[in-house]
Amino acid sequence: MKFLENDSEKIQIIDGPVSVPTIIDGMVSEMSTEHPFYVMDIGDIVRKHRQWIEKMPRVVPHYAVKCNDNEVVCGTLAALGASFDCASKGEIAKILGLGVAPERIIFANPMKPASHLRYASSNGVKTMTYDSDTELHKIKQYCPDAKLVIRIRCEAEKAQCPLGKKFGCDPVEEAPRLIKIARSLGLDVIGVSFHVGSGCADFPIYYKAISYAHDLFEYAAQLGYTFNLLDIGGGFPGDTGTSIDEVSTIVNAALEQFFPDKAAVRVISEPGRYYVSSAFTLVTNVQSKRICLNARTGAIDRMMYYLNDGVYASFNCILYDHQIPRPKLIGGQTGKQYNSTIWGPTCDALDQLIETIALPELQIDDWVVFENMGAYTIPVASPFNGFELPKIYCYISKANWELLESLFPLQNECSAGQSIAERLMSSFESVVCA
């Protein structure tokens, strides 16, 4: 059985290692310059999953589907045995449709529409978060047998996308009261979750949040609860050149100090950008150009370039994810550099990718590449002004393809008591993750 069947995606299997720059060079020499496109390296996701298991073996990743709900991404992670963080009925349906067991899903939206609660309940998705008394009463009405996880607020000072203003209760002042209310309603609270902020750059905050969770575990025990789940959320870096070494060291140390009994407490996480950011490279093209002259001297004052992708499509990450795009040129352009502005293709002045950057002069049909474009780009893109969205071309080495086929579908526990992590590591050892 193929690990994924999807006619809408084009998956190319390569005998040797996958080299994205080489693939792009070949594609731009043959393709039309009218439309942008993505090159997806599936092996990059496989490598990331292996690194996660090696560095944080106790923490079970639940991929945040909202980050990039591409079916190849989700199918790859399903085959690898990752679980999933879903925020809506639609995301739950997508993941269940891949054959993932409902026990491998956490409904991690603290504010859930009633119809989504009913859908989750009827499909066996019972683990879900809350951070208010109103949500508790709603859950009591529509999903009284839920396995609840209270979401606390412990936010990093430096985060690409802070979340604390919208979600999470104060761990000292509010959380005990909300646990007590859940107890009075007869609801089953099983643990604590937090999210330090997407794109966190303040890793010691994980230690602080885990310590807060420990205090709440002890408080809940006084009420007769036996908490057994800790969700450390997301915030892990995923761009090329980044690493989870520092954060994993902090997380592992905190778990060893506050939750040393591995059998008593299951630890999960909600990584998103970690898995997909570097796996996607966007290739765009200069479709128009404007030379702005100095009215007094007649010299070139600024170059303006108009690409065939913009903030209403892939570069919505500028608006929603506070990303700073970094262009790479194809074609060996040299010579004098000019202050340049890069725009998207639409008729909206908001559609600006880079206000000022020094570049050599570009020509119509020149290619411009943007790496690390897999996070919070594709799910939010729209065909505003009638411009087509980029196609996605997926590449995988033959070794990784055979690995994923052999793993899918991956059961929660393997034969002879072998855990998912153990089976994956033994499988990884037999393949070069190109």
UniProtKB/TrEMBL annotation:
GO terms for molecular function: ornithine decarboxylase activity. The modification N6-(pyridoxal phosphate)lysine is found at residue 66. Residues 37-374 form the Orn/DAP/Arg decarboxylase 2 C-terminal domain. One of its GO terms (biological process) is putrescine biosynthetic process from arginine, via ornithine. PANTHER family: ARGININE/DIAMINOPIMELATE/ORNITHINE DECARBOXYLASE (PTHR11482), ORNITHINE DECARBOXYLASE 1-RELATED (PTHR11482:SF6). Catalyzes the first and rate-limiting step of polyamine biosynthesis that converts ornithine into putrescine, which is the precursor for the polyamines, spermidine and spermine. Polyamines are essential for cell proliferation and are implicated in cellular processes, ranging from DNA replication to apoptosis. This is Ornithine decarboxylase. It comes from Anopheles darlingi.
